[in-house]
Specification:
Layout (H helix, E strand, L loop, with lengths): L2 H4 L35 E8 L5 E9 L2 E6 L20 H5 L6 E2 L13 E2 L1 H4 L18 E2 L2 H13 L14 H4 L35 E5 L2 E5 L5 E7 L2 E7 L13 E4 L17 E6 L2
Antiparallel strand pairs: 1-2, 2-3, 3-12, 4-5, 6-12, 7-8, 9-10, 10-11
Length: about 290
């Protein structure tokens, strides 16, 4: 599958940061934990633990009369919050025909766990009574971020100076959201200023640590090092919704410096059987 072939299929709530060849897989000796220095606008950091014992860092921002708190790694738990197992599916033909929940690791190797688990949309389907979340969360506050919450985060970052050039208008927050590793320059391109693949050490001002983890589509795995997709539970006209960051220079309507949103009505939807990452967040009071 080449880059052009996947464009008509995109629409899974994704951040899409495109920057390297499909066959290159960035090596990682350690996971990006979102602990890089962050703006004073970020109030606190914390941790939560899932049912598998994985510990995640979080970062909180003050937003008007409340706080918003985001997990800064992709979720990688193999269980729902009630402890019941999510089926792991490795076979390509089985995966692409699923209409029930499943997860996998990129290229079916546990070595890619640092990027998070790839879930199909049925795992986060609002109609699914089983939910993803931390082991201790009696009020069910933590949940998979939806379109409105991604939009809220995007606007907050823009308005509070997280654009790569320090401006507070226009969507140029990709570098502030991208992790300081995993992003590679797209073949044949020299990343421009504001591209997450340029000067990796200057990424992640927000602490949100977006990794270029690729996705699973049609049973196959693609775009590690060039993109990362996050599901949203929202649907539009029956189609899925997606957010993306990207570093591919020249994709019409999708600047490499931006955090992008696609809804089912604006482009053909990514199949619900595709495998994407998820981020959890919650809303709370001011500290």
């Amino acid at each position: 599958m080449n880059f052009k072939q996947i464009i008509p299929l995109i629409a899974c709530l994704t951040f899409f940061l495109i920057s390297c060849s499909n066959n290159q897989i960035p090596s990682s000796s350690s996971e990006d934990t979102g602990t890089n220095p962050i703006s004073a606008i970020s109030l606190t950091t914390g941790t939560i633990t899932d049912q598998d014992g994985n510990v995640y860092n979080t970062v909180s921002f003050r937003l008007n009369d409340r706080t918003i708190e985001w997990v800064v790694q992709n979720w990688k738990c193999t269980k729902y919050r009630d402890g019941s197992a999510i089926p792991q599916v490795t076979d390509s033909n089985t995966w692409k025909n699923l209409t029930t929940p499943a997860y996998c690791w990129y290229k079916n190797t546990i070595n890619n766990k640092a990027y998070g688990a790839l879930y199909n949309w049925y795992v986060i389907n609002p109609a699914n009574i089983k939910k993803l979340g931390p082991a201790s969360d009696p009020n069910y506050a933590w949940h998979v971020a939806n379109d409105a919450e991604w939009t809220q985060l995007m606007n907050f970052l823009i308005q509070n100076g997280y654009n790569w050039d320090g401006t507070k208008t226009g969507n140029k927050i990709a570098k502030s959201v991208a992790a300081t590793w995993s992003w590679l320059a797209y073949p044949g391109q020299t990343p421009k200023p504001g591209n997450p693949a340029k000067d990796l050490a200057t990424n992640n001002k927000s602490g949100l640590s977006a990794l270029a983890g690729g996705l699973r589509q049609g049973g196959g795995f693609n775009f590690m090092g060039t993109s990362c997709y996050w599901w949203s539970p929202n649907t539009y006209n029956g189609n899925t919704s997606s957010w993306l960051l990207m570093s591919y220079e020249g994709w019409p309507g999708m600047p490499a410096q931006a955090l992008n949103n696609f809804k089912g009505g604006s482009m053909p939807a990514l199949s619900k059987s595709s495998g994407c990452y998820v981020r959890l967040m919650k809303t709370g009071p001011i500290f």
